[in-house]
Amino acid sequence: MPTLIVPEGFQYVTASVVATSWLLAGQSVLVGRYRKNAGIPYPYAYAEKVEAANSPAANRFNCAQRAHQNTLESLPVVLVGTVITGLAHPILAASLCGSWVLSRIFYTRGYITGEPKNRYGGLGALGSLASIAVILSSTYVAGLQILANL
Fold it and tell me: According to its record, how does it sit in the membrane (predicted)?
């Protein structure tokens, strides 16, 4: 049975992965706050289009909800890629995941202004680069493992 050897520095990978939980918790709090301010009851995930067009509070709720949803959509790729990359290159993996988390904070802060175009201000666009880098680096690590066992 193969043995999994966790490399030195893997604690940074675990810290970056835990940071994603804090990111999601923060986004959840924001969504709840904006939901309450807009008066959007459960189970509605978003304010209706007309409601959002007529209410800045409803529009900001939709933006907060979308920022959170977008983070959830990309999180599995980032987490899996971070762990796989981290088994060979823990500092790289932790740096990429940490960069992604930081970028999502800026992305969210820009989005909740109610102007979706603000989501890429500051470091918001860094997340796309970090995601691509995680995909590429994890593919490289997985490919090396396959080649090593041929």
Answer: Multi-pass membrane protein
